Amino acid sequence: MTTTADARPAWVKPHKLASWTHWVSRPVSRGSDATMTATAPYDGRPTAPVPAGTPEDVAAAVASARAATTAWAALSYDDRAGVVLRFHDLLVERQDEVMDLIQWEMGKARFHAWQEVLQVANLARHYARHGASYLDDRKVRGALPVLTRAREVRVPVGVVGIISPWNYPLYLGVGDAIPALLAGNAVVGKADPQTPLTLLWTRALMAEAGLPEPVWQVVTGPGTEIGEAVVDHVDYVCFTGSTATGRLVGERAARRLIGSSLELGGKNPLIVRADADIAKAARGTADAAFANTGQMCIHIERVIVHDRVYDEFKRALLDVTTGLRVGQSYDLSHDIGSLASADQLAKVSAHVDDAVAKGATVLAGGHARPEVGPFAYAPTVLEGVTDDMDLCLGETFGPVVALYRVHDDDEAVREANRGSYGLSASIFSTNAPTADRMARMLRAGSVNINDGAALAAGSIEAGMGGMGDSGSGRRHGAEGIRKYTQAQTIASSSLGPVGPPPGAALETFVALGNRQLRLFRSLRIR
Ligand code: NAD
């Protein structure tokens, strides 16, 4: 794939951009020339202007999405799944386009952009084929056995708001929208100001797959204002982002009594037991620490190593880390790309500089790579990190990992459970029962055994989410689609209203009721 003089992929011509920005939903401010433009990490130059909406646009977008829900929800699940499966096929076929856009807007390496395609395609296929079974009616015994029936059914919530960050613009912008749409909801997605084109490209592709226009709307504009407006109007909000913003979103949603799922930050630990396969542990650590240039909620930032294998593991990790190819290209020739923005570079540098100033030792990296790109940063390994350093228990969200030495499993678990987050954790060990026992003691929504991070996230039939400050609610699996519905109980009687028949003495009815209680108890009914 060639680029123009700047980092823009050469095929991204004005008419292409117009075909995507057409999908910005701003019914109220249509015609206004307000735009927003992000900075491309590869060259520090502007990407392309995207129309910017207002909170009034969000209100109108939600209203038109809500008007569309009746017809969309009335379709059969299979009809909706047909759209999603066509989207799947188009995505797989046209993946180079979206990978170019992801890289241009966000700066990650090609392989990490491909992982987004892989994850979204897997989610689309899985929920299209199996989502209906997660939403099946549940028959239960009625209030009066035999004479009455009851079922619990799932009904769509209405309009789902999806607020996503810039680090996985395809996966987090679309992967959560797919089950919401399949469950019969309309979606209003808020594009992150750094990565709107990826989401708009995807919206256009979903239209090619046959999704009716009002059913999925994309709103743009200043993050706080537009994000708050989304929470103020939708019927459910799926938020992914920082813990600080997640708290605000959760409070705002709670005031409106709407449901929310909050997928937030992490400071994820990886434990290397004394019996671990060290080569595999080192490779797994590097993969999980530096994936997406360390800008991944589940990436590893703390490595807790048994004293007996500490030196051997350190050597192996440094070998892998120094062999990583850091660079910027629209192909698979680099392992690690750029950080996403000047802000990210400043935050990551500040964490590392603070640690070094307070006595941490840099074993690898520890500095920017301006010769690679304006926001590139070297994969970094530290040791000697102490509690007074910002990066000790605070999320760095960059390609930086710190090593800690422990002397037994209990100490490893205690160290891993420190801090307020609880998103993901990993254990490398050749003793499966022990690793399983330790996994249950870790405060983390996902635990990977003999893998750094991707294994649990890729197990899309199981939930993924956080404990503690890492959030509430789950994506993927049954909960990843059920959360977009509400349970409704439908009870029916073939007798007419349950209660004393007309004219019956209440004394007789109560006596019969008491006899039934004793009968049920002795026959063990219920
Ligand atoms: P952020 O919280 O700053 O922004 C996330 C989204 O919220 C953006 O679209 C932003 O425009 C919007 N927003 C900002 N203020 C808002 C408000 N007041 N109300 C509603 N929306 C608002 O997060 P970020 O820095 O862009 O993303 C990185 C963070 O996201 C990291 O902490 C990372 O760990 C976390 N993250 C978590 C997961 C997960 O699944 N748990 C996945 C990816 C990223």
How would you portray this structure in words?
The protein contains 19 helices and 18 strands. Strand 6, helix 8 (196-208) and strand 7 form a beta-alpha-beta unit. The protein starts with 13 loop residues before the first helix and ends with a helix. The longest helix has 25 residues, at 110-134. The chain has 2 domains: 50-264, Aldehyde Dehydrogenase, Chain A, domain 1; 268-460, Aldehyde Dehydrogenase, Chain A, domain 2 (3-Layer(aba) Sandwich), CATH 3.40.309. It has helices at 14-21, 55-74, 77-93, 95-106, 110-134, 171-174, 177-182, 196-208, 223-233, 243-255, 278-290, 310-322, 342-357, 390-393, 409-416, 432-441, 454-458, 479-482, 506-522; strands at 35-36, 50-51, 138-141, 148-156, 159-163, 186-190, 216-219, 236-240, 259-263, 268-272, 300-306, 361-364, 380-383, 400-406, 424-428, 446-449, 471-472, 485-493. The model has no long low-confidence stretch (mean pLDDT 96). It is globular and about 90 Å long. With 526 residues, it is α/β, with parallel strands linked by helices. It binds nicotinamide-adenine-dinucleotide. Nicotinamide-adenine-dinucleotide binds at residues 163-167, 172, 190, 192, 223-224, 227-228, 231, 240-242, 245, 248-249, 263-266, 297, 395, 397, 423, 466, 471. InterPro entries: Ald_DH/histidinol_DH, Ald_DH_C, Ald_DH_CS_GLU, Ald_DH_N, Aldehyde_DH_dom.
